[in-house]
Design a protein that fits this description.
About 20% of the residues lie in helices and about 40% in strands. It is of the alpha+beta class. The protein has three domains: about 25-35 and about 180-245; about 35-175, no CATH class; about 255-365, no CATH class. The strands form eight sheets. Strands 4-5-6-10-8-7 form a six-stranded antiparallel barrel. It has a four-stranded mixed β-sheet with strand order 1-16-15-25, with helices on one face. Strand 9 (about 145-150) and strand 10 form a beta hairpin. It is flat and about 110 Å long. The two termini are about 20 Å apart.
Length: about 375
């Protein structure tokens, strides 16, 4: 059964509704320089209960295991081993902004071979590199897998994803990002959803907070804040005063459709021009009912098959012709479509047709 989810994104313009829909600046922008960095590493998980990589199918697992054992002083030259309790994995993490040496971060571990489960495994010391090739953290710990797998002679069952897991606080930061935040004289705010109106409101809110011009809108996605003009003790103090200011964001009218799940999400600002909608179904049914005519008794004749075809056309009662007035709001459109008794997929087709007719005044996004 197709799920139909309709979300009404209400954006008020004045009064108490404006206060209720005001969003903090920290939730609308990204501050230049205040960002995380992705880390990745290649390691080995041990202690699996026979669910590791098959060495013949994953030779890289044997290579990394040999390297680890040799670094630990174990000579395995010329030896052949076929353990089933080890697995090669990729380890990923995000180094938070201003992370200091000695602090811990969460990591995600994902199998890259043919291991069937990482449940109960332990990640061996794995260095994590950033895009510059330098090691910024070292990961190790017991994996919490995200699923369960069980198998027997006659079948197997898998629930969730047992080939991936997490290690909370599984990596320790060893190197800090070389970035002096206190030396900044200005900072750029990048809007997550660029919009000229929202950028102007952020600029106004900051200038009103300081009582003078300390911020300037550059474009729809950038607002520059002059820390020097703000007169605060440090850039960190300026950010603490600015990030909690509330602004009412402006959004473009949009209709987002997911055809696979039948999900439709529309904003309240969606408007439809004067248009007429009619919805109905036409069914053509053809059935074959051949008639067999037997030969006369005591004759050498053979039965004859006389073809009979019954063709009918059925037209279900249509929903009629509904007219949508000029400038109709979202709630009125939904009420009208529900009155027509249309299904989610039919509603998607109707919205497509209305957009094609040029009567839907919103971005129409199909996923």
């Amino acid at each position: 059964m197709i799920r139909f989810v309709l979300a009404l994104l209400l954006i008020a313009v004045a009064g108490t509704a404006a206060k209720a829909n005001a969003i903090r600046i920290k939730d609308l922008v990204e501050f230049d320089g205040v960002r995380g960095n992705d880390l990745v590493g290649y390691g080995l998980v041990v202690g699996l209960n026979g669910t590791g990589d098959g060495i013949r199918n994953a030779p890289f697992t044997e290579d990394i295991m040999s390297n680890i054992l040799e670094r630990l002083g174990v000579n395995i030259t010329g030896e052949q081993f076929r353990p089933k309790n080890v697995a090669a994995v990729f380890v990923t993490a995000e180094l938070p902004p201003f992370a200091r040496a000695g602090s811990t971060i969460d990591i995600t571990v994902s199998a890259i071979g043919d291991a069937s489960s990482l449940l109960g495994g332990t990640l061996i010391m794995t260095p994590l590199n950033a895009a510059d090739g330098e090691i910024y953290a070292v990961a190790q710990g017991t994996i919490i897998a995200g699923g369960i797998s069980a198998e027997g002679d006659g079948g197997a069952m898998v629930q969730g994803v047992p080939t991936a897991g997490v290690v909370p606080s599984g990596a320790r930061v060893e190197r800090e990002i070389d970035f002096d935040f206190t030396s900044l004289r200005s900072i750029r705010m990048a809007l997550r959803t660029p919009d000229f109106t929202t950028a102007q409101r952020i600029e106004t809110a900051i200038n009103v907070r300081y009582g003078r011009t300390v911020s300037r809108m550059i474009d729809s996605g950038t607002v520059v804040f002059d820390i020097t003009s703000a007169g605060d003790i440090s850039p960190a103090h300026s950010m603490s005063r600015v990030e909690n200011l509330v602004v009412e964001p402006e959004r473009k009218a949009a209709v987002v459709v997911d055809q696979r799940s039948g999900t439709i999400v529309m904003g309240e600002d969606v408007r439809i021009s004067r248009v007429a909608v009619s919805q109905g179904n036409l069914t053509l049914r053809i059935t074959e009912e051949p008639l067999v005519v037997q030969a006369n008794p005591f004759s050498d004749g053979e039965p004859i098959v006389v073809p009979r075809t019954d063709a009918t056309i059925e037209e279900e009662p249509g929903t009629g012709l509904a007219e949508i007035p000029e400038g109709t709001s979202l709630s009125e459109v939904i009420a009208g479509l529900n009155a027509l008794g249309v299904s989610p997929m039919d509603m998607i087709d109707i919205l497509k047709s209305i957009k094609a007719a040029g009567a839907l005044h919103a971005d129409f996004i199909i996923r």
